[in-house]
Amino acid sequence: MIMARSRFLTEEEAVAIRQAIQRAEFRTSGEIRVYVESRCEENVLDRAAWVFKKLGMYKTEHRTGVLVYIATISRKMAVIGDAGINAVVTPGFWDQTKELILEEVRQGRLCRGIVAGVLQIGELLHDKFPRPQNNVNELSDEVVCGK
Known about the structure:
By secondary structure, the chain is of the alpha/beta class. The chain has a single domain, classed as Diaminopimelate Epimerase, Chain A, domain 1 (Roll), CATH 3.10.310.50. Helix content is 42%, strand content 16%. The protein has a five-stranded mixed β-sheet with strand order 1-5-2-3-4, sandwiched between helices. α2 (44-54) links the parallel β2 and β3 (65-71). The radius of gyration is 14 Å and the shape is globular.
């Protein structure tokens, strides 16, 4: 697993996504990660759950991690949240967020789609999990690029 410098995103795009994550997390105790790879040979939700676990996203204090998972060549994508978020999210929210991202991806704008999705997730997290004064950033904001 390597960080953002990859064939998926330019350094500038990785910075833009990291900044969107930071902006989204500034108003919430939630934690957002983005994982991009080329292929997903299995069920996309199973793969996203595996990545979620591998990144240790379930270890946040209030179980408020969200993963945006994209496999570019396989054309698969998932947005999944941890137990704390799933307990309060409205039905269909993850699908709405996924569609928002996919609208841009279909136009060839992967970075723009991810940024839009991250900011939408940030709004939900702000509403349900506002940032406390003593908030600690529990997970890295860096984009992770896999195989």
